[in-house]
Amino acid sequence: MAEVLVVVEATRAFGVKKVTLELLTLARELGTPAAVVLGGPGAAGELTARLAEYGAAKVYAAESEQIDGHLVAPKATVLAELIRRVQPAAVLLASTQEGKEIAARLAVKLDNGILTDAVAVAADGTATQVAFAGGTLVTARVTRGLPLVTVRPNSVAPVAAPAEPAVEQLAVTLAATDTLARVVDRVAEQKGSRPELTEASVVVSGGRGVGSADNFKLVEEMADALGGAVGASRAAVDSGFYPHQYQVGQTGKTVSPQLYVALGISGAIQHRAGMQTSKTIVAVNKDGEAPIFELADYGVVGDLFKVVPQAVEEIRKRA
Amino acid sequence: MKIVVLVKQVPDSGADRHLRPDDHTVDRGSANNVINEMDEYAIEEALRIAEANGGEVTVLSMGPERAAESIRKALSMGPDKAVHVTDDALAGSCAVATSAVLAAALRTLAPDLVLCGAESTDGRVQVMPHMLAERLGVAALTGARKLTVDGGTLTIERQTEEGYELVTAGTPAVVSVWDTINEPRYPSFKGIMAAKKKPVQVLGLADLDIPAEQVGFAGATSVVLEHSQRPPRSGGAKIADEGDAGARLVEFLATEKFV
Q1: So what's the ipTM on this one?
Q2: E strand or H helix that includes residue B110
Q3: Which end of chain A is more exposed for a tag (fewer CB within 10 A), N or C?
Q4: For position A190, what pLDDT does the model report?
């Protein structure tokens, strides 16, 4: 069977991202999964065991300061070279900012079609995508080149399937135009131990109804009680209650967790665009007419400052 | 500094949006068509840079004839002129072909800086800045929440999942911005009147030396096979708090195995 290349995403703190394990799981349906690690010197060493656990039959490693020190252009150049050589059955990337950016450059380099925001990929490379705030499902296929698809986090349940991959080092030969965008500093902003927003199985978000930055502690407590990530509506972010990188919605992140808890969020289209494909939705809002209740599997009309502390205490009691 | 801002006309994201049943393209007839919201932040950033450093701001848009309304709207914020790439053969163009057309138009304009929104509210694909940079052989600084211009050196703060990165490049470059970067100005009455007289150059495929069969449905690198509306979610249980709603909520979460 032909190889299916999975472009690995990892973070310094948590190693291989969950979405990569999901892609490896998906890749098994399409061919033989091969993981591609693109990072600084030594990057693959730390990640290989985890990739093997989820079925990577091969690990390609491109390790270079040049890759780590620049935005995605060097990664795309190395990948394009690999794709030309091994002629994979498909190339899968995460539908994250970086995944889409690498795929964009690959599409131009290889004059190849591109499909983004897929939630499923069939054995023939046909992808199912969601459009317009999750309201429309689209089935599409690449007609020029190989299936080059970015897949949304939480689209597939990751399943372990241990393999013993050979690791192949890739030469990193770059053009001058690959190193134009230089990363001069990376600044970590405090996040604690919560899971990453787009990957989390549980997301607890606060809206305008939370009232202040201080009150967002309540949202965080609920998230921590459920082992989830914290999100915020645009209204909450615009009011300065919570930082922008946690914004869920049309102009923020799209999430699709098992459980989405909306606290003090009215449910404007702007917000629904980012969360309405969540499996189970729970809402607490004092306005019984709020549109969020049209989506909620379980809605509480009430004061979140009473309901949430009681719920947090109850969850802790059961833990 | 010569700055080009990319502007896309999209159906209003606050309204119901659909794909057309016949060719699966975005139905532009059913919704109010507006400037892609994120592009307004790019226009604002371009105007601020030109105001601080001197320079000229050009709006570049590819789209059907009716996109002219959005181009005028963009000009009313303050840019100097616009280029509208329009051609019947462009209908149904995929992202790869669109990037070839926009890159060809950009070559004729030879800007120092190309500014655009980080994504459009209709496709949300986020691929255009890197596709253009790849074609033009220039740097792409994407996802900026802050942009600093120091002579010919550009530096952005780029939001990441773990914090942010400082990324720098020399001009020429493509920079995409998020809506955290500034607060776009409203067009003034004077701006609206002035916009009516600003030059808008209309370019077709022939002007850009691009064969029609390389774009549109004919030249598309991917095809939509079918589309459907997801069944709308229906609300489930809704309770009013009588002092025990927190506990009842957890009861629900327990039956769903979340606690």
Answers
A1: 0.94
A2: none
A3: C
A4: 66
